[in-house]
Amino acid sequence: MSKGKILVTGGTGYIGSHTTAELIEAGYEVEILDNLCNSKVEVLDRIEKIAGVRPKFYDVDLRDAEKLAGVFKSGGFDTVMHFAGLKAVGESVEQPLRYYENNVGGTINLLECMQEYGCKKIVFSSSATVYGVQDTPKYVETMSTGGTISSPYGKTKYMIEEILKDVTVADSAFAVTILRYFNPIGAHRSGLLGEDPNDRPNNLMPIIMKVAKGEIGELTIFGDDYPTPDGSCVRDYIHVVDLAEGHLAAMEQMGPGVQIYNLGSGAGTSVFEMVKAFEKASGAELPCRVIGRRAGDLAEFYADPGLAKEKLGWEVKLTVDDAMEDTLRFLRTSA
Asked: Is 93 helix (H, G, I), strand (E, B) or coil?
């Protein structure tokens, strides 16, 4: 018997697909809504191979209010896990209106449907970008947000967080969990699911993958003169399976109002350390070239995940080395 019925928006994407597999394996009935703008429908086959169940799929854009209402009318969902959204930081700077219209507008449509059809629980995939620039590299949930966000992408995450808070004030039946996370990496241990974006990659790991596949000639490293141990930027990398399990833990501990959690490892890894870890796992040298710093990049930041451990009983189990091995397995499987 199903534990509950979950709608996963963006469920064929990188994090959404891993979370869908975890939800099914945990006994939930899952349906996916995705417009496939940055994912592939073949992901459904891979989820089925992993979890033994093929989730029902709606090829629907959140901005299409009529089609979205049709999904909810037939759905009977207990909870929404909301991953859908455009996410390329650089592209958002070039196309801000597209990002606001898609990410914020789509979420408003989603919340209106949830209200109309009585689904009052949502887990939102947010980002550490909402913190902007802080005086310390260690980010905690009590810090201010919204003040120094450097991209329209990050601002859409902040705006959606604020909208969700306002919804719970207006309707006390709403339960909202906001998960702010840092840099997801890795792949499913089966090698069947991993990061395979249609759009231009902006994050370190998908670029490393493209260099390894020969689609990009070399990895460009922006700066080696930061005030960090090896001069390269330091970030908090979290294995995507740990992240998916964090979503499951958060959903199972939901209560009224708004809960906010960081999901991260609590430690930083530098760009050079990431390169070395990939080279160690692959046994091959990764072509790299260091150039000047990129505007807006911070030297170092990472999560304080203590609240998630205390309240959800969640913490990371997998390492950067695990992520590299799983990524290579995915690259071989998807080749």
From this structure: helix
